Amino acid sequence: MSTPKRLPNPIISSSLSEAAASGVLDGLDAGFTIDEIAPDTGPKIRGEAKFSQKGLDELVKLSSQGAVIPGQSLTNNPEQPYPWETPPEFANPREALDDIVGSIMQPEAMKNIVAALAQGAAVADLGTAILYAKFNEGKINPDVMMMLAEPVMYTIMAIGEEANIKYNIEGDDLDEFDEEDEQEEFDKRVDEFRNALTDIKKGATKNIETSKIDTNVVPESILAQVKEKGPEIKSLLSKGEE
Amino acid sequence: MGLFSKIKKAFKKITGAVKKVVKKVVKGVKKVVKKIGSSKILKALAIAAAAVVTGGAALGAMGATAASGGFTGWMVGASQAVTGGTLFGTSTALARGAGTVAKLAASPFKALGTGIGTVGSKLGVNLAPASSTATPAQLSAAVKTNPAAAARASTAASRGALNLPSTLPGASTAASATGTAAQQLAATAGSLPGATVGSFGTSAGMVGTVSGTAAQQLATTVPAALGTSSIGTAATTAATAATAAPQASWFARHPKLTSAATFVGKTVGGAALTGMTQQYIAGDPEQQGSMAGAAYEGESNLDPLRVYAAQQGINTDSIYQNMMYGNVDPSTQYSSELFRQQTFGVA
Questions:
Q1: Nearest Cβ partner of A155 from B19, B43, B54?
Q2: DSSP B31-61
Q3: Is B52 in the same domain as B90?
Q4: Which of residues 192-231 of A touch B (CB under 8 A)?
Q5: Which residues in B274-312 are b (16+ Cβ under 10 Å) and which e?
């Protein structure tokens, strides 16, 4: 393991993603390799979402139970408000985050999160559920809930990475990053091929001297045309005029 | 649309945006670090982000590379110094075991214990490939946050054999006591540590042979095993705590960040003070503290209206009772006819 050349630089960022990226780049700059930062832990467990008729039935059953009647909340006793109608327990996002991460890190919660990720639940859905539950409990207000979406999602992602699971971030996007890698690799190869072809073409046309071409092979009339038209002559394979 | 639907919609937007940001950042890092798969960068990002979010506590709890001095340890060194400390620095298996338990008790984020990645099987989900390096005893000690259970595990000869008295709560069970609660207590009281001085005698282990009550034995053996000074009496501990050097503040531990924050604070605060001072100098006490340059509607804007009102003999206090069409009374238009033009007659 390489020894870092220096201490980490302070990171000031309004976005956690950017802060994390800065941290990774700072680590690389300080002498860590990417393998040291994100060590290989063998093949990952695919958290593939599988269709479940039972789950669908459950969902249909829940949605067919009907919703509340418009204005129903106005009939509630104002002396007994819902938790989310009262001032939140945490108005400070930092304190709220500490509380939420603390509850995520409980063994039972962690076990459920890992199991859910392994069975195909998306990080965004889990994060939403956790934060929404905290809002329902009256712990946080909607503004803090929105602000904590990114940190909570990253915490769940870290749990997934530590558990060596290939997880969905949003919906069913398990292989999205890999597919992008493949597409990038494909595009790169195509570009390389095109560049090589252009180089060959340039080199070949540069070296052609019409005076040296054997007239027995190419008739003089055609050579004269070549000289006359020059660059206007297009390859048979070139794109035609539209 | 109700509040909940709005919240759900907004939340969906945000989570979608987070994914976009993650993608963007992965691409950004990829440009700097060539020939690396996106998933690898994603992993690095997740680790770094978790370190930022929880100050390393989450990763420490999951047994990430922090302990081995890797990237995470480098990034969250300060945090580890607070949550871990040198108490757990000894290399014996015993100290590791005791250290783990103490850490679990010390930090709420560290409840899960070591290596979720390497010991995923302990979660009851058959996930991890067969790469588990932890022993069953370690797993059970890590999962159970019961110090007594962990201490029991540490008494195994293979783990360093800390010579703990055999009468820790729950360590030994008094032979089946029956009856009322009072009767059961009476029957089992003898097995509680410190209940009777003479009943425990001595115990032998890696620290040597010690004697006394369970509490006395622990006071000697645990600090000796961990390489720290003796715990001593409660009074001594309290005195030590009172005289111990206080933990340096966050600002003291992050001088660069503090100086940057101070600079920003000074700049912003300075600008606000300048605006405020200028308002004091201007002598308008009602507007002190308001933002400099804010758009106030000056009285001069009303001047043309006042002049007109004075000419027409209108009191400006009742201006709304004198509706104007431009500067003309609309009633002058009542008698004027609308524009007319000749039209073709239709047969």
A1: B54
A2: HHS-S--HHHHHHHHHHHHHHHHHTTHHHHH
A3: no
A4: none
A5: eeeeebeeeeeeeeeeeeeeeeeeeeeeeeeeeeebeee
Could you report the per-residue pLDDT of A112-142, keeping only the tens digit for each? 999 999 988 999 999 999 999 999 999 999 9
Domain finish residue from B50, B83, B116: B83
* B186: in domain: no
Model confidence at A83: pLDDT above 60: yes
Q: What pLDDT was estimated at residue B120?
A: 40
Whether residues A17 and B127 touch (CB distance < 8 A) is answered with no
Over residues B42-63, the mean pLDDT reads 72
Lowest mean pLDDT among B41-50, B99-108, B264-273: B99-108
Q: Does A128 touch chain B (CB under 8 A)?
A: yes
Question: Based on the number of CB atoms within 10 Å of its own CB, is A66 exposed (0-12), middle (13-18) or buried (19 or more)?
Answer: exposed
Contacting residues for B280 by C-beta, under 8 A, at least 6 apart: B288
Q: Which of A161-170, B288-297, B333-342 has the lowest mean pLDDT?
A: B288-297
Count of structural domains, chain B: 4
Chain A positions in Cβ-Cβ contact with residue B36 (cut-off 8 Å): 34
What is chain A's Cα-based Rg? 31
Instruction: Please name the member of B8, B52, B58 whose beta carbon is closest to the beta carbon of A20.
Output: B52
Check whether residue B35 and residue B100 sit in a common domain.
Answer: no
Tell which of A11, A82, A105 to mutate to test the B interface (max B CBs under 10 Å): A105
Measured at the CA of A140, the angle between CA A139 and CA A141, to 5 degrees, comes to 140
Q: Which domain holds residue B263?
A: 254-284
Does B319 reside within a domain?
no
Distance, in angstroms, between B15 CA and closest chain A CA?
6
Does residue B132 form part of some domain? yes
Is B318 within the bounds of a domain? no
Q: Which residue of A has its CA nearest to B120?
A: A163
Question: CB count, 10 Å around CB of B57?
Answer: 26
**Same structural domain for residues B79 and B6?**
yes
User: Are B9 and B73 found together in one domain?
Assistant: yes
Instruction: Tell whether B78 and B2 lie within a shared domain.
Output: yes
